[in-house]
Amino acid sequence: MDGRVKVVGQVERVDGRSLTYAEFVDRFMEPNRPVVLTGLTGSWRSSEDWTLPDPADCGRPNLGFFARNFPSPLVPVAVCSSREFTDQKRLEMSMPEFIDHWIRNTEDHDSSLLYLKDWHFVKEYPDYVAYTTPTFFVDDWLNMYLDSHPIHRDSDIANHKNEVNCADYRNMRSSVYNLNDDVSEKHFPEFHKTEWLECIQEQNEVIFVPSGWYHQVHNLEDTISINHNWFNAYNLHWVWNLLYDDYKVAREYIEDIRDICDDFEGLCQRNLAANTGMNFYDFFIFIVRFTLANAIELCHIQQLEDTVIPTETAHHLVYNLTSIRNVASKMIGTDAFCTDNLLHISDDNHTAFSNIKEILEEDSFRRLLMTLSETYEHIGRAERICFNTRVSSQMGCLSLSCLKSDCNVVDHICTCEVHGPEDLVRLIDNVLLDK
Ligand SMILES: O=C(O)CCC(=O)C(=O)O
């Protein structure tokens, strides 16, 4: 017998103005539970500009404002009535074209529904500040990193001739396409055991969707949504697990040509990067940089004598390092990092994680360090306002002014060598042991 979803409860709803950051962590981020947060969008420009001003319109989207002010020549659009594997068919069109289509659909309902999806609005209109990210979500490593670094720096994806095409196994995985359909027990044998929460997200409400939670959205009326995909120390292991799962698919797909490949692991990693957007080396380069940034911040903070800033911020930094350490220890022993395979990786990739001195001198790393420092300062400030504690007046040895060759903190880190996950675990242990 085929099954339908079994809704067992509602997503919890909390007023975000009376929730502290620490409570958000304890109740939702750390246990990976969803929540609808209210009261956080009062000052957003988008709440005002993007909705029709007449109360009789009940806050419906102001489409004319969009067409006039954001006339992008090309925006990504999904065709809701179509299906390509586990997703909808994608098109590109101009914003005015999209809005025209939307208005026509509202009037006559016979053209197919379009959904403007995954449009990077902030990148395209950086001067229009549509919203401020709620403090609960500012510890966002993905966007901190992407703002300063390209994710796949190696140019090796397309260059190898006579290799199994990177895109060949894309879309082979299956997932339930529509929860409202009968879901085949044959294809999804455990489906009847799944339990679902549901909620209606009202205008100006924010929903936190935890890592790995399958979710499906049905718009009950015309809607504009703002989304962030992000992760941090609380779900870094999810990112690694997903990458590892994708890697296994990539490897399985070419398993039968292993014996005739000079560099089988290299091919797996190239295919992984082509499909997932990053491979194990990219991910490692990323965690090395976050380790260095957190370690430098931690060392500097501990040189401050003030007792307020160091305790709370140091707690975040230690948690971050511990989370990276856990993931790095899972990477030890993967084929990608065995000595033979490391001999095959490009100099670019190897330098990007092993040459600590060079990393510390990169402008992109300095930008990352600055953003990291500002982020935890911002969270700390929000916590102090909540608890009404004293604000520190200490101006100590902050990382930004102190990323100099004569700084003993940086000197110490510069002496470390990182040739793989084992070294990274050792480096983190040394930093944490010092504390
Ligand atoms: O905003 C939407 O319509 C859905 C977005 C979503 O589900 C997601 O980003 O995962």
From TrEMBL:
GO CC, any one term: cytoplasm
A single GO molecular function term of this UniProt record: 2-oxoglutarate-dependent dioxygenase activity
Pfam family, one: JmjC
One GO term of the biological process aspect: positive regulation of translational termination
InterPro entries the UniProt entry points to: JmjC_dom, JMJD6_ArgDemeth/LysHydrox
Gene3D superfamilies per the UniProt record, alphabetical: Cupin
Domain JmjC positions: 80-247
Name of the protein this chain belongs to: JmjC domain-containing protein
Source species: Eleusine coracana subsp. coracana
